[in-house]
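Inputs:
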Amino acid sequence: MTPWYEKLSKKVEDNAFKLGLWTTIAILVGGLIEIPPLFLQGSVKKIDNVKPYSALELAGRDVYQEEGCFYCHSQMIRPFKWETDRWDPTRSYGDTPYSKAGEYVYDHPFLWGSKRIGPDLAHEAALRGSDAWQVKHLIDPRETSPDSIMPAYPHLFESDNLVDPEGIQDRMNALKTIGVPYSEQEIQGAAAIVKGKTKGDALVAYLLKLGRDTKQK
Amino acid sequence: MDEKINYDNEIVRKFVLATLLWGVVSLLIGVIIAFQMIFPEVNVHPWLSFGRLRPVHTNGIIFGFTGGAIFATIYYAVPRLLKTPMWSSALANVQFWMFNLTIVLAALSLMAGFTQSKEYAELEWPIDLLIVVWWVILAVNFIMTLKNRKEKHIYVAVWFLFSMIITIAVLYLVNNAAIPVSLTKSYSIYSGVIDANIHWWYGHNAVAFFLTTPLLAMMYYYLPKHTRLPIFSHRISIIHFWSLIFLYIWAGPHHLLYSPVPNWLQTVGMLFSLMLIAPSWGGMLNGFLTLTQAKEKLRTDATLKFILVSLTFYGMSTLEGPLMAIRDVNSLSHYTDWTIGHVHAGGLGWVHGICAASIYYLVPRLWNTNLHSEKLAETHFWVSTVGILLYVVSMWVSGVTEGLMWRAVDAAGNLQYPSWVEIVNELFPYRLVRALGGVLFLSGFIIMIVNVLKTIKTAGSGYKPVDLREGVKASA
């Protein structure tokens, strides 16, 4: 006897339209159940201290993206003691020093990464909060961390490798249209703030913003 | 039958050559970045640093190499299965050139640092739009060919290809939604956890609907054609097709276990990943059982060997993946080289295996001659298989090693390896073996290219099917 699914399938497999239709339905169900609920109000718990990236930090985030830093560095600390011990040894992030949804509300796109060739950077502001160290490390990672396998980025600090002052305003405006609460004033002042800054300066500013807003002491 | 219908083989030939070209370039980049991870001096130029080259490698392999082989199959197998030429040869050619332009622009723009920074969805919006155009062209051509078909029954390979065309369109449009700032910069309209969730819904299903379903279509077409024996079970193919496409979509959140993504979502992702073992193994078993009908050829036929190893890796990766989606296993494997090993078991083992078998099937028929050397194909098989094993095993060891070192604590409960660099140093030998495995694999691929080019030199000399069984001399 032909089983029921084979009879059903017979109807579909000889009819291109039905095949396409049922395939479409089959592949939509999972996404429709998994994705829209996250857009509901309150599904992402806000953290009041978390502020948008400043003009220079945003420019630095763009450099972080350009260089593909996220292929080797995660920005998401999992709730394990061995992770929180490693990335919050001084307990600067309270009783639950792992990553929370509210920390990322201004992250377009998210930069959690999927691979730790280097260490996590979500708490960089607390762990290595000095400009000088960050600059030195980016120019020659092996000077601050012998045996590091990170590429060197001296070119980011060359005096002609600058952040584009007009471009940064366009970028902030674009982000504003999708919900990042930049004020007109902030956007107006952005060009002056980033003027003359190298891409390296911007990157360091961004790195020092990572984990700064949620740091408690 | 084939002779009576005027099939366009030229477009298939072009896609086969593009597959070989993008394959060798992307593999070479893979080898370079493997060496960058052990010798940072190999980062010789800002455009050629690890962070810039990694997406060129992944996009090149996924969309350039695998895409080329998939499109070659669409233009070869679909008309033959439906007993009608493609609806439009011109559109196929337009798609071919736009596809290659996309790959070139992708490589250049990624090296220049233009990126959306979402894995396998890095390309900036103008290139995304270009892709949308040729994807629609492909879809129209495919659907019109289906409509004009002379064969009433639609064979399972066509279902799998159809599911790819539909699903990739949906995934691509949703995940790449971005607000443009300039020609070379845009921001994802989603943020944080929402972006992560949508992205891995896309990312996981790029694996499902670009690296799995069209490859299953290739298995369902080339394997029975090559052995001239029917597929083992049509019933299995029905059940595993529908359950595979339905279940796969749900599995994305297993990339986000222990992240701030809601817990229910993580659990759903984990459960559906486990359920996926059944339809994945359904496909694998159908392939294996079809293959066993021709087992007397296995010892001597490199094409079948590639399919055998490919199915083995498919079965292994589709068991390993669900296991890695279990929270406790994931706590060890996530963020480590284990993931890279898993991906390459699937990529080098499954994807390349089926693609190589397809190329060895297609080339003699397309250029109407016999393969230059079965022996070279055999060499390619062994060199690449040893390369894959070195790669995958070293990454397993490396991944588990680093995972264990990250969590190791001493008697007082303090981290035993607080220094990151100490862990990196420990991984050096494994990563060296991985790079060497990559070199071997690349060498195997070059052997295939040489073999194909030498075959093309004798184009038109007449293709005669060869029975490769031991002791059988006469052609069948």
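The mean pLDDT of chain A is 95. Flag for discussion at group meeting.
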